[in-house]
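Appendix B. Worked example

We walk through a single record from start to finish. Start with the input: the chain for Putative benzoate 4-monooxygenase cytochrome P450, Clathrospora elynae, length 501.
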Amino acid sequence: MLAVVVGSALLILWIIASIRRNNKCGLKDIPNAHFSVPYSRLWLLSIRWRKLENRSRIHLHRRLGPVVRIGPRDVSVNCIDDGIRTIYSSKFDKDASFYHALFDQTGFMVTMIGNDEHRRRRRMLAHPYSNSYILNSQTLDSILSRVSRRLREGMAGWASTGTSVDVYQQAKCCMLDVASGYLFGSENATDTLQDPGFENDLTTLTKTTTKYLHLRTSLIWPMTYFSSLIGGNVLPDPVARGRWEAWLTRVITDSYRRHPTKPPSTASLFDHFYDSFKAADPDMPLNDMASFIAVECDDHLSASHIGLGILLSYTMYELSRDPDWQRALRKELLTLAKPSDKSLAHRLADLPVLDAVVTETMRTRAPCPGPFPRVVPDSGCRLVGKFDVPGGTVVSSSAWALHFNPVPFPSPEEWRPGRWLEVDGNTLAEMRKWIWTFGSGARACIGTHFSMRVMKELLVTIYTDYETFLDEGFTGNVEQEDTFSSSPLAGCVKLKFRRLT
Ligand code: HEM
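Next comes the structure step. The output line below is what the pipeline stores for this chain.
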């Protein structure tokens, strides 16, 4: 009886304190996502736990406007000016508790919290990912032509036998083979299109990690500790993990051995990274440097493998559902047969249908929907010209909520590449501002130009000579999982191929 009285008294005290705290808090004028959010994070953590966070944000912003309170000190933002332009500037640090829960290892660029450390690392890595470098890289030319050749061999077989192909897996293989070749040189590239065993290892490792992402990012200490015991941080499949680490060690050692004699025309990213680290700190012990480079490369490989695998396979899926757009794309690709002084990489910029198809898939199937939380600096900030948000508030945005906003994108759920071709220049520029697949600001993705070139060249390889269509026998759920990295729920996307020439 005494326990009940004490418990009730404590509860009443907690409610009074929460109400008083909320009345004093600078967030009280912002619309609430749920009646409980001024007092507790439970609602936010429960939608994250149940894998509903990004889809919920789409509907919340449609109902409540561009700024919505989702926790006692958490705000969701869904507009460009006075919104993501402000909160994704270099003044706002990443939210350490979220990003450190997200990854098994830290110390690489995505997980860096403070902006000074991040700026130094980004300067070391960014050059070979710049647009001009990507367009003119002979290393990337040669690895892309090798992967395209392998892909053509595969398609010839699938088309002649009428095989139902898991294009998600094939897309992941393409991306792993391209990224490993760009990072470590053709001599160290994987060849998973030919021998997919190694890709399976990586998919197994990624699946185990992403399976617990929603738990790790929704539980708060000390529960994160218990979640690690039930699987959050347990090393997945030690055999696959061992093979992956052994491969990474071998290619880094080999790249280091070849580095002194490599001509610039065949330089890999490893060569650039090594020179940058050496220039920044000539006395850095070799082992430290090797492990810094290894964790960065590990991250770039997995972003390419999963992120681009998702994007390429969904582009193929959407084209298979819409034969008219597939025909329009092919008509455009056949113009590439005309002689030109420009390389294929440079000619990609002259293909508006290809660009519209890719951009529309980036909009409707963003592989990393969010939420990318940032912490408001002590000076506070003002959002949409009317909400003064105090320092320490966690602000975040979701790519899906921005992309499914019906104002810039009428009928947002429809995959309609034509929306990018039918509008005037000003409207187009406005629509482009809302595309947030690769984030924005100081911490935007460094892989954007690499991703665009690789995606588009592989689509040229596929749709110049082949048609893809739905496999009627495939009934898997192709919707995306609502988590930080959003693969198809079925784990696969099956299509068939037909040769056209
Ligand atoms: C479709 C594929 C990809 C998507 C959707 C994607 C998306 C993103 C997003 C949204 C961010 C911002 C994250 C944040 O604010 O916390 C980011 C950052 C980053 N991405 Fe990507 N990415 C993709 C491919 C790649 C590739 C291929 C690479 C490798 C080269 C890469 C390397 C990075 C790095 C290093 C960062 C951190 C940048 C920084 O902190 O300055 N990404 N990516």
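Two observations about the output. Residues 29-499 form a domain with the Cytochrome p450 fold (CATH 1.10.630.10). The chain has one domain: 29-499.
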